[in-house]
Design goal:
Blueprint: H1 3-13, E1 18-22, E2 25-28, H2 29-45, E3 53-56, H3 62-73, E4 77-80, H4 87-96, E5 101-105, E6 115-119, E7 144-149, E8 159-163, H5 164-178, E9 185-187, H6 194-205, E10 209-211, H7 218-227, E11 232-235, H8 237-244, E12 259-262, H9 269-278, E13 283-289, E14 293-298, H10 300-305, E15 312-313, E16 318-322, E17 335-340, H11 352-358, E18 359-360, E19 363-372, E20 378-383, E21 388-390, E22 393-395, H12 397-404, E23 410-419, E24 425-433, H13 443-449, E25 459-462, H14 479-484
Parallel strand pairs: 1-10, 3-4, 3-5, 5-6, 9-10, 9-11, 11-12, 12-13, 24-25
Antiparallel strand pairs: 1-2, 7-8, 13-14, 14-15, 16-17, 17-19, 18-19, 19-20, 21-22, 23-24
Length: about 500
């Protein structure tokens, strides 16, 4: 069984059933099949052959999803290349994984020194009778098909090479986790992200519908959910406050949502209550990694009583907290978390050094710091790499950020260490207020009220937004740059 076999099974079950909704146009399974055939035939005519690695840099649309399928049909390997990164970053990513050509849509901007294949999609002819068996070659279950990138929050993303078999295993796991069925309507995140593509294929292969919206457009997001009865939504925690601010009336704004998956960070009691009261009570918070998928999940019931947890382990997964020497710690003792499962990858693609660091003795070292309670609850305290050492006082930035984010005038925050003029380390908090400065309640006073003590930042800087990756995670390496972009007079400290 390969990805294309599974897709054709879904089409054959009911060709007239909807597969996608895009710009309020309903695209049936057969129409989507014809779109995939059209793209595959064009790519084959352009010389795409088995084993070739090609970048994909396209907008969020059915054509993008069909192009992923078309390349898999030809035995090629697709590499997601985010259109929003710089030309230099695109070129470096393609060079790193051996992609010589970039697939895009006609009119898209592409790097000058990269050969591109510009697809002219046009309209979908519902009367076409194209077939994916237009050439004799047919990929098998072991054929490489996709380079899945990690989130890259601590540096350049690593990659996992997906065969058709492994990709289907990940999709099936996603379908089971999110409980997709023929009535499901999923609004996936960016298809360049592992989570986005798994969510889209999970809905499609379950016989459901993939609903596309304009990425980054909150109104398109809101309208799409209600207009098309979306049942499955992926959302980072930061979007909860922003979305709720656009919902003026009391009550549940999205009663059709059956599965609100929160990704890109943890929750707290305030966010859980806010989302439950205004967005949907069906909140699920998984803990996982790009490499392993969802390892544990907190259900709505768990979040109600333990809003700071990430739930219990999913079937087939093992998780341990270990000390720096690799010794397994007892329940409740925090340490670095390591995970394993029968379907886990064996290492990173083309990166032996990082593979040796992260894949050890049959375990994957997550680089997350946390513990498992005596009753099996997983709790995450922070990233091992982000731990702050302030004059011997060691703590994770999430501890301070959690306090700051409860301030009534704060939208979000991030803290980090920097050198002051005396070359000593000071704690700095970068804060996004929810209204124009000044703040009524000074942040330093608030921290003292909350008894942060020596963890109170020495400097507070107000900014318009924090640097985040497409998954909504803070890119901590970029925080010091926020202080350099503006003269200090325009970056007011609140002391």
């Amino acid at each position: 069984m390969n990805l294309i076999d599974r897709f054709l099974q879904v089409v054959a079950l009911n060709p007239a059933a909807p597969a996608c909704i895009f710009n309020s146009q309903v695209i049936s399974r057969e129409m989507f099949h014809q779109l995939t055939c059209k793209i595959a035939i064009e790519l084959h005519a352009r010389g795409v052959a088995p084993g070739e690695v090609l970048g994909i840099s396209m907008n969020h649309s059915p054509a993008h999803l069909a192009t992923i399928l078309a390349l898999a049909r030809l035995g090629a390997v697709s590499l997601p290349v985010d259109p929003n990164i710089t030309e230099g970053a695109k070129k470096r990513l393609m060079d790193r994984y051996g992609a010589q050509r970039l697939v895009c849509q006609k009119g898209d901007l592409t790097p000058k020194d990269v050969t591109s294949i510009a697809l002219e999609i046009g309209s979908i002819d519902s009367q076409s009778k194209l077939n994916l068996r237009f050439i004799a070659y047919w990929p098998d279950s072991k054929t490489p098909a996709r380079i899945g990138l990690t989130s890259g929050t601590t540096g350049n993303p690593s990659a996992i090479l997906y065969t058709h078999e492994y990709w289907l295993d990940r999709i099936d796991a996603f379908m089971s986790f999110d409980r997709f069925n023929q009535q499901s309507r999923s609004m996936p995140s960016d298809l360049h992200l592992t989570l986005g593509s798994l969510s889209a294929f999970g809905a499609l292969f379950a016989g459901g519908v993939v609903v596309f919206h304009r990425l980054g457009d909150l109104q398109s997001f809101v309208t799409g959910i209600n207009l098309h009865g979306v049942t499955h939504v992926v959302m980072p925690p930061i979007r909860i406050k922003k979305l709720v601010s656009q919902l003026p009336h009391e009550g549940i704004a999205f009663p059709k949502i059956e599965f609100l998956r929160i990704v890109g960070g943890g929750l707290n009691q305030h966010l859980v209550e806010l989302a439950t009261r205004k967005i949907s009570p069906n909140i699920y918070l998984p803990y996982g990694t790009s490499e392993m998928g969802a390892i544990s999940v907190a259900t709505p019931e768990m979040l109600h009583s333990h809003p700071d947890c990430t739930g219990r382990l999913r079937p087939g997964f093992e998780l341990q907290a270990v000390d720096p020497d690799g010794h397994v710690l007892a329940a409740g003792e925090p340490g670095e978390l390591r995970a394993r499962s029968p379907m886990m990858p064996q290492g990173y693609y083309l990166d032996e050094e990082r593979t040796a660091q992260r894949f050890r003795d049959g375990w994957f070292m997550t680089r997350d710091f946390g513990f498992i309670t005596s009753d099996g609850m997983v709790k995450i305290e922070g990233r091992v790499d982000d731990k702050i050492n302030l004059g011997g006082l060691k703590f994770y930035p999430e501890l301070v950020e959690g306090v700051l984010n409860e301030h009534p005038e704060v939208k979000e925050s991030a803290v980090f260490l920097m050198d002051d003029q005396a070359q000593s380390k000071i704690l700095v908090a970068v804060v996004v207020p929810n209204h124009k400065p000044p703040l009524t309640l000074k942040l330093v006073d608030y921290c003292q009220q909350k008894k942060l003590g020596n963890m109170t930042p020495a400097r507070f800087v107000l900014v318009r937004e924090l640097p985040r990756n497409p998954m909504g995670k803070i890119i901590r390496s970029m925080l010091p740059e926020l202080l350099k972009k503006k003269p200090s007079a325009q970056s007011p400290s609140v002391i």
